[in-house]
Amino acid sequence: MQRQIKSSKRELHGKMKKSNSTFLNPVFSKNIFFILIILFSIQGFSQKSIPDSLVAFYTTEPIRLDGKLDEAAWKKATPISNFTQRELHEGDTATQPTKIAVLFDDKNLYIGAWCYDDEPNRLTANKMQRDFSYWTDDDLEIIIDTYGDKRNGYLFVTNPNAARADAMVSRNGNSINRDWDGVWNVKVQKTSFGWTAEFEIPFSTLKFRKNAKPRWGINFERNVRRIREQNLWQGWSRDARLEQVSRAGTLVGLKNINKTSLLELKPYAIGGIEMPLNEKTRFTGNLGGDLNFLITPTLKLNITVNPDFAQVESDRMQVNLTRFSLYYPEKREFFLEGKDYFNFGLGRSMQPFYSRRIGLAPDRHIIPIYGGVRLMGKAGNTNLGVMSLQTASKDTLPTTNYSVVRWKQDILKESSVGIIAVSKIEPGRQNYTYGADFTYYNSHFRGDKNISFGGAISQSYTSDFDKKTGVASRIFVDYPNDFIDFSAIWDRAETGFNPEVGFMRRRNYQMFNADFRIKPRIKKIGFIRQFIFKPFDFNYYIYDDTHKLQSLWSEFRPLGFVTKSGEVFEFNIQRKAENLLEDFEIHDGVVIPTGEYWYTDWELQLETFEGRKVYGSVFFNWGGFFNGTRNVYEGQLTWQTNRFIKFSASYAQNDIRLPEGDFVVHEVGGRADFAINPDLFGSLYGQWNNEDNVILFNFRVNWIPTPGTNFYLFRRQPGI
Fold it and tell me: Is there a contact between 461 and 469 (Cβ–Cβ < 8 Å)?
């Protein structure tokens, strides 16, 4: 279960009255200016290890995918082994060596890895299912920039259990779509010297430009969790990360490679039993599918008929203790594939396109989709996403067409400019949203620091509104680096801005945000890897039409740190405010009257390292709440019994005391994950809270007989 309480999610309340006119004062503005001067004076340096190119060896010898790496071709290939530490000792040679070689034939790219470990019986390998949480296990991560544009890439990950995870990376690592599932395979062998991995990646899984002798970007990361060692081949700065393909090395030696499939058919069939309460049990079934066609090697056309969303896991129940909209993430595979092509620069809380508006009613029940078309990919320096879907009529909702066009052009080395247009057309009514955005990225600022800035503007049109149009806009600057991490944002949404195929957290507002963190590493304190101090972090909202206070959330962190063993601790002090223009019913029969409220909270958070067999977290927040008080207690505990079974449980309590009435919110969740092998796995998930007072269960089993083919067995209650 999820609530709006963690620091990045919290919404704002209040107790003591105070004028808001002095919040953004000249002294504060001077402090921001001083911080920017510091950022621009910090020097960086480049992290490149020689050799920085890897030669792929062509073979006609059959490669048996078993992880043993014993074919003669592996001995003929020229490996690289010059890995450097990012953690714990930046710039030092890796203490646990890694060797990588690459082969290819007419259909596949093969990557072989020898992961040496001086204590092979202590490998951390708790996960085995598809799309596992690889940041907690020993792993090997590979990123491949097939366009050679230093912006986009494919990420492939495995661990000593041969678990598979992958992602599509764009905007030089600033956008990572972990919901992308490629067709590829890997096998692993544990050995007396550590472990070996053998990847088989079909060229048909990758998009790349036609070139007789292509030069692709490639990089590798190896993690040894028990000693918290992180080693990279290239770009090993703490201000860098593997997903930044601009820092990758080069894969050479490929020649005359082609995709093996221009046409792909993905049919589905579903059968099951429905058992509604107080109704007769009935059998159910459905048919549909997708047809994919490569117009060019990098541009794909998709035609879908009656897309299938049945196997999707249910949403986590959320209890809303704010007066603003809740956000539910997209889980349907059809919309997750290529979702980055439709992202726009207004930020997460103000999205002109939010795919959950398509095929889902306001109560989150499914509306059938007849079908549609989609075009996604890259042509030269142009990124293009086009989609149009038609939904069926259901109950009082008419048949509706939803369409979106997103065009983005690469400019400079890492930057972009783009436009978006979104429409919702139903009988007698139309809603349109359109806009433009610009983003400047530089991952080599003053050496190897990261900096970005940009903005976006959007307008909506609603045919049956008295005020038919409204505008939203955003400006931001971001400096996300290891020692200094700073960002500032200004958002604005006019009263009439109405993106009906989008998401709006709140309306009629301007938001001023700044977040400044200092993260020193003090070697004399042996058990702490890094401190994280936060001099300030605030979201200050005003009503756009009156410029009066709407909300404030601010946080000061006098102490926060991450230990060398992976534990995280935070102590935060928060100041919050809410200005209610009308009475707010926060709970049945509990109505907070109109007025301006200010209050202060204190907060403690502790998380233990997730790579252990047993790990967990605790969270305490106590202080004011409107004209009363609130105490929040939250705990999570996970037991990884072995690589096959994991149990987890969570509990959260909001104890709220107000003059208008007292109430307590309880939320409970439990989950069991199991994996027979990397191709057969599943989960049982249950949740309850005393507001809805309903127990929801979700059971799912996924079998992958061959990469690219999936069978599901599931039980899911209504709603997504």
Answer: yes
Q: So what CATH class is 26-37+310-716?
A: mainly beta
- Return the residue matching tokens 């953690």: 87
| Helical segments of 439-530, H only | none
The answer for residues whose C-beta is within 8 angstroms of residue 412's C-beta and 6 or more apart is 440
> What 3-state class would DSSP assign to 356?
helix
Specify the pairing of strand 503-504 against strand 350-351.
antiparallel
Q: What is the pLDDT of residue 717?
A: 58
Yes or no: say if 600 and 575 are a contact pair by the CB < 8 Å rule: yes
Q: Tell me the pLDDT tens digit for each residue of 528-574.
A: 999 999 999 999 999 999 999 999 999 999 999 999 999 999 999 99
Of the candidates 124, 102, 127, the residue with the CA atom closest to the CA atom of residue 113: 102
Q: Measured between alpha carbons, how far is 46 from 413 in angstroms, rounded to an integer?
A: 17
- 596/415 Cα distance (integer angstroms): 42
Whether residue 8 is predicted with pLDDT greater than 80 in this model: the reply is no
Compute the distance between CA of residue 153 and CA of residue 137 in angstroms, rounded to an integer: 22
Q: How far is CA 137 from CA 123, 141, 225, 609, 717, in A?
A: 8, 11, 6, 11, 33
Six token digits for residue 198: 């053998």
pLDDT over 70 at 25, yes or no: no
CATH code for residues 53-252? 2.60.40.1190
Cα–Cα distances in Å, from 632 out to 125, 402, 410, 586?
A: 34, 41, 46, 16
Mean pLDDT lowest for which of 93-102, 301-310, 446-455?
Answer: 301-310
| Contact by Cβ (8 Å): 498, 539 | no
Would the CATH topology of 26-37+310-716 be identical to that of 53-252? no
User: Would you tell me how many other CB atoms lie within 10 Å of the CB of residue 621?
Assistant: 21
Q: Are the CB atoms for 353 and 344 separated by under 8 Å? A: yes
Examine the pLDDT at 702 and tell me if it is beyond 80. yes
Could you tell me if residue 698 is left (phi over 0), alpha (psi between -120 and 50 degrees) or otherwise beta? beta
Rounded Cα gap, residues 296 and 210, in angstroms: 9
Q: What are the residue ranges of helices labelled H in 506-662? A: none
Q: What is the DSSP letter of 361?
A: -
Task: Count H helices and E strands in the chain, helices first.
Answer: 3, 41
Alpha helices in 513-666 (DSSP H): none
Output the CA angle 172-178-183, nearest 5 degrees. Answer: 105
45 pLDDT more than 60: no
What is the rounded distance in angstroms from the CA atom of residue 562 to the CA atom of residue 528?
6
- Of 474, 467, 508, 470, nearest to 490 by C-alpha is 474
The three-class DSSP label of residue 493 is: strand
Q: How far is CA 370 from CA 107, 348, 403, 625, in A?
A: 36, 29, 14, 47
Rg (CA), the chain: 26
Q: Beta-carbon neighbour count of residue 366 at 10 Å?
A: 16
Per-domain residue ranges of the chain = 26-37+310-716, 53-252
* 3-state class (DSSP) for residue 30: helix
Helix (H), strand (E) at residue 430: strand 429-445
Q: Contact at 8 Å (CB) between 71 and 63?
A: yes
Specify the amino acid at residue 592.
I
* DSSP element (H, E) containing 312: none
Classify 683 as helix, strand or coil: strand
Amino acid identity, position 668: V
Cβ–Cβ < 8 Å for 460, 499: yes
